[in-house]
Amino acid sequence: MEETLINILKHPLVIGLCIGLIVAMVIWLRGLGRLRVERSAAAARADHLHDQIETLKAHLHTQMEITAKGNESLKEQMVALQQTNQNLSQTIGALKQKPGRVEIRTLHLYEKAIRVMNARAPGFSSAWESAVNEAEAEIKKEESGIIGWIRKPFMFRKTGSTELLGDGGESQA
To answer: d(Cα 152, Cα 156) in Å, to the nearest integer?
Structure first.
């Protein structure tokens, strides 16, 4: 039986088959080595990518916290500004209704009407009525525009200062 085995192993077909199997085994082992290297490289890349993802998640979380704090701060500022606006609106309303404001406006109206009436025709009541109407229209224009805001304080001071000063513009003490 040994002889038969040796004869079979010496046969060229068996020798070629053994050489082919040895070459296939070497190629298979080299493939396994390369596969193991590629798997370890892929695992390293996966770990690196996982670390990058975690870093990006941390950055995103930080950015979202900063944005949330900024939005909250802006909301608080908006509420404070709305409250300030409401308070200022109430103050303006109170100042418009302040006693004496209507009387000062009426006196200013009459002063303008008297000036216009004296310039046109002193002594006529129709002239007086038209002068009052024109003065009232002019004061409405002044009150509604920016020019009125600028002009009005100076006119009141001028009117008030002429009442306080004597004939020659000198103060009476």
So the answer is: 6
Task: Name the domain count of the chain.
Answer: 2
173 located within any domain? no
Cβ contact 108:139 at 8 Å? yes
Domain that holds residue 123: 100-161
DSSP at 172: P
Report the 10 Å Cβ neighbour count for 132: 17
- Looking at residue 55, its amino acid is T
Is the dihedral angle over the CA atoms 8, 9, 13, 14 positive or is it negative? positive
Which residue in 146, 144, 138, 128 sits closest to 108, CA to CA? 138
- Domain contains 44: no
If we measure between CA atoms, which residue out of 111, 120, 97, 93 comes closest to residue 152?
111
Averaged in consecutive runs of 10 residues, what is the pLDDT profile of the chain (173 residues)? Answer: 82 90 95 94 95 96 94 94 93 75 78 75 67 81 67 52 40 37
pLDDT of residue 34: 95
Secondary structure element (H or E) that encloses residue 58, with its range: helix 12-96
**Residues 105 and 79 placed together within one structural domain of the fold:** no
